[in-house]
Amino acid sequence: MTVLVTGGAGYIGSHMVLALLERDEDVVVVDNLVTGHEWAVPAGATFYKADIADPAALDRVFASHRIDAVMHFAGLIIVPESVRLPLDYYRENTCASGVLIQRALEAGVESFIFSSSAAVYGAPGLEPVKETAPFAPTSPYGTSKLMTEWMLRDVAAVNPGFRYAALRYFNVAGADPEMRAGQSSGPSTHLIKIAAEAATGKRDGIAIYGDDFDTPDGTCVRDYIHVTDLADAHYAALSYLRAGGASMAANCGYGVGYSVRQVVDAVKAVSGVDFRVTQAPRRAGDPAMIVAAPGFAREVLGWTPRLDDLPTIIRHALQWESLLSDRKAREQDAR
Ligand code: UDP
Fold first, then answer.
1. Ligand 1 binding pocket, CB closer than 6 Å
2. pLDDT of 52 strictly over 90
3. Which of 140, 202, 215, 246 has the fewest CB atoms within 10 Å, i.e. is most exposed?
4. DSSP alpha helices (H): ranges in 28-122?
5. DSSP 160-194
6. Candidates 189, 215, 220, 267: which one to mutate for ligand 1, based on the most atoms within 8 Å of Cβ?
7. Can you tell me the distance from the alpha carbon of 294 to that of 129, in angstroms, rounded to the nearest whole number?
8. Active site annotation includes 169
């Protein structure tokens, strides 16, 4: 059997492909390369440059492989951009997912794993967030993810052979420990990526957005999860569904929060670089705190994180950032 990974040329998708290949799965990648890079698709996977909103292209892929499971990472991910361009997010994240789900159903796919987000909860308050927390997305990005979860729920309700797992990511960061994959797509908006760029001299510093939140040091608190642990959680979800597990949604986080200031200090400590840090106003829509209540994924999926250590996440992010600089320098030399 074969696993189809959409968005396999992107950040999280490329780590997923590595995790699948390591477990001897046959992997097919579909990616439109709008934000991903073909070089990021790990060797060993069959790659199709195609859009998941194109039913004919999907049908060709499904007809050429015996695909029993889909892992769906393709989509747009920048929250402030989604506020500016809501229809782009509904088209690329929700409508395109509808096409993919429909073609997957037609092709007899039994297991569907979806990249959802803690953004479906909005601003949940200061307590760790359980899967049963109310949905209250505060951006079109979060709404576009929630709508796809609801499509999956409703489709699964009337198709007993089709089951899904929606994995709600907290703050994903880091890179493959062996440096075979990492975060390459720009523009960077995420804290650890930006701090790693500052530490490697790619930007002249970092701004902290807001220091007057209701948190211990006044800056926002997030739950940072290593991208390789996240890929492992997906593999656990795949095994769970293949073994007949019921459709479900699970948080993917460690249940430990770090403030923006703590993250910035940790990047300085791990890199040994004292880059410039400035204070800026709050970014629109940032909740004070989002930390997962992580028990469900561990209990139901049997997921065991291996890299749940902030300095390790940062070290891998920094190593990847340096590799990207080397790649760029080589490309410039070649020109
Ligand atoms: N952040 C910041 N400076 C930056 C980027 C992010 O202070 O250059 C803060 C941001 O306001 C939020 C936290 O870091 O409080 C995490 O932001 P990120 O965009 O990484 O993830 P989010 O939690 O928004 O999905």
1. 79, 171, 189-191, 194, 206-209, 220, 222, 260, 283, 286
2. yes
3. 246
4. 55-64, 79-84, 86-89, 96-106
5. TT-EEEEEEE-EEE---TTSS-----SS--SHHHH
6. 220
7. 8
8. no
The whole-number pLDDT of residue 330 equals 79
What single string gives the DSSP state of each residue in 47-70?
EEE--TT-HHHHHHHHHHS-EEEE
- Per residue in 8-38, pLDDT (tens digit) is 999 999 999 999 999 999 999 999 999 999 9
Domain boundaries, the chain: 2-173+226-253
Mean predicted confidence (pLDDT) in 96-119: 98
What is the distance in A from the centroid of ligand 1 to the CA of 191? 5
Taking the CA of residue 195 as reference, the ligand 1 atom at the shortest distance is 8
Length of the chain as a residue count: 335
Q: Percent of the chain beyond pLDDT 70?
A: 100
pLDDT tens sequence across 304-329 = 999 999 999 999 999 999 999 887 77
Rounded to 5°, angle at Cα 282 from 277 and 285: 135
**In terms of Cα–Cα distance, which of 6, 194, 205 is closest to 92?**
6
At the topology level, CATH places domain 2-173+226-253 in Rossmann fold (3.40.50)
Catalytic residue among 141, 235, 240, 254: 141
pTM of the model: 0.97
Q: In the structure encoding, which two tokens stand for residue 181, read together?
A: 């994959």
Site of tokens 């007809």: 63
